[in-house]
Design goal:
With 220 residues, the protein is an alpha+beta fold. The protein is built from seven helices and six strands; from the N terminus they run αββββββαααααα. The protein has two domains: 97 residues, no CATH class; 108 residues, no CATH class. The protein has a six-stranded antiparallel sheet. Helix 4 packs across helix 5. InterPro entries: RNaseH-like_sf.
Amino acid sequence: MDLARWLCERKTYFSVRLKKHEYVELEEQIWFQLKDLGLTPGSSLYYQGVKVTKTKGFSGVNLATKWSRNYRKKAQKEPWYILTNLESLSAATAAYSYRMGIEEMFRDFKLGGYNIEGTQVTGDRLIALILLGTLAYSMATFQGSLILRKGVANYVSRPSESKRRYKRNSSFSIGLKAYSWLNSLSFFAEEVQELIRLVPNKRAYYSRGLRAATIIQSAF
């Protein structure tokens, strides 16, 4: 709530999620707890000029609420209650949805990527490392995006589970793993050929993987 107030004072656009037990004043002296607004899967509401929380709240902001409908056994457990100064429901929910990439980004910045933090370098060496890392990160991200569009990402990274809230692998992660996967195919080529001779019924899968490797190689 303090963050939303701070951003509002600086005339900065924001979309901040509220907890379901927060109170909003939709009409003068009529307060509702968010969980009591009556949303059901597939429904959405948008209120302008509301006041939020009875004690330390502030007014003149908007409230966007959305509960996505169930789709192919994927169900959103509860609605989004979004405090915003954007002028429409679609703008508020679209802005908030960008945060879904945070999980991937954190993993990329930490041990899932180049782990620059772990080097503990400072000064000019850190600046040089960041510049180099930025170039490498951008290249891996572009390559990963291309591999995703070609539909062969599952060969280099574990696919996301149906019930997983966020994607398991970012475009950067896919690009990075693709490079290692191609190197492994080349390094263990003789061993793999020997295994295929021992288990010939797997040759069709092996051939399919080689075709995928050719497609992935075109991204580099």
